[in-house]
Amino acid sequence: MTRRISVAAIVLMLVALLAAPLFGTGTVEETPATSSDSDLFRTPNDPRLFEPGKLTVATGEPVFPPWMLNDDPAGGEGFENGIVYALAEELGFDREDVVWIRVTFDQGIAPGPKAYDFNIQQFSVTEPRKEFVDFSMVYYQPDKAVVALPGSDIENASSLADLSGARWGATIGTTDLDYIETRITSDDVAVYDDQVGTFQALVAGQIDATVISLPTALFATAVQVPEARIAAILPPDENDLGHGLVFEKDNPIVEWINDGLEAIIARGVIEDLTSEYLVGDDTIPVIAQ
Predict the structure, then answer these.
(1) What is the pLDDT of residues 226-265, one digit of tens each?
(2) What residues does each domain of the chain span?
(3) What is the DSSP letter of 69?
(4) What are φ and ψ of residue 144, in 5° steps?
(5) Does 43-141+241-277 carry CATH code 3.40.190.10?
């Protein structure tokens, strides 16, 4: 006599066979619980870091005084690397755990993955840039200054209108270039790949003037281009919110880094570094409008 087994019965038997190891006598070993990676958040071994155990920081190639001295970020002498080492200590990193890498200014604010935790390179926080990268809180707001050769027509300028007829040049990708194009002149502005190229064009007489941050201008006219002088300090740039650290878009450590920055600002670290490296000159004329 042939026995018929229904499809439903076969299904029930298969389910029972498959379930048996799971609900059996306990011969299957359980995976031991492990501590969550989140336990390491906000520590030097934070798994969200580019290289846990290290604070990987990008900056320019080369770097310039007074932001960093001797083209040596690891030397710790200068305003920006002084900030980084104070921040690293605040976050729990040893000095030797700070790793420096070099990238261009344009690479720093370009969209896409970053092979570091953040970049410090006098980056101005602007709304358009926020579309492609994340910024820390603003840690410093420098004035902008006009640098020109003595005898220039703009040497005694007292208004933005007095500046409009000059031949201007600036470094590509900077808020300095944006300022010239939106606040000073509608004429074409010569654009150079880096600060050195801009200064060389000025000394060669290819341009009459450029705009750079006042701390950079003070050093440049004292050391790099002593032929030039600071003609004026410009009105504030409403589109330049100040300097911030630059992160890959949606980097989850931004809040942690901001807490560290707030702590060193509260302790007066950045104020002290400003006094040491970014000394001003109250004899420079100021253009109000």
Answers:
(1) 999 999 999 999 999 999 999 999 999 999 999 999 999 9
(2) 43-141+241-277, 144-233
(3) S
(4) -100, 145
(5) yes
Q: In this structure, which amino acid lies at residue 232?
A: A
Query: Quick check: bond before 32 cis, omega within 30?
Result: no
Fold match flag (43-141+241-277 vs 144-233):
yes
Q: Is 26 left (phi over 0), alpha (psi -120 to 50) or beta?
A: left
The structure tokens listed for 218 are: 């003070």
At the topology level, CATH places domain 144-233 in D-Maltodextrin-Binding Protein; domain 2 (3.40.190)
Is the whole model's pTM more than 0.85, yes or no? no
Please give the backbone phi and psi of residue 269, each rounded to the nearest 5 degrees, phi first: -65, -50
Q: Please count the helices (runs of H) and the strands (runs of E) in the chain.
A: 8, 10
Cα 6 to the center of its chain, rounded Å:
70
Q: Give the tokens for residue 144.
A: 């902008």
Separation CA 7–CA 11 (nearest Å): 6
| DSSP assignment letter at 33 | P
Pick the closest to residue 242 from 218, 267, 274 (CA basis).
274
> 22, exposed or middle or buried, with CB in 10 Å at 0-12, 13-18, 19+?
exposed
Higher pLDDT, 42 or 6: 42
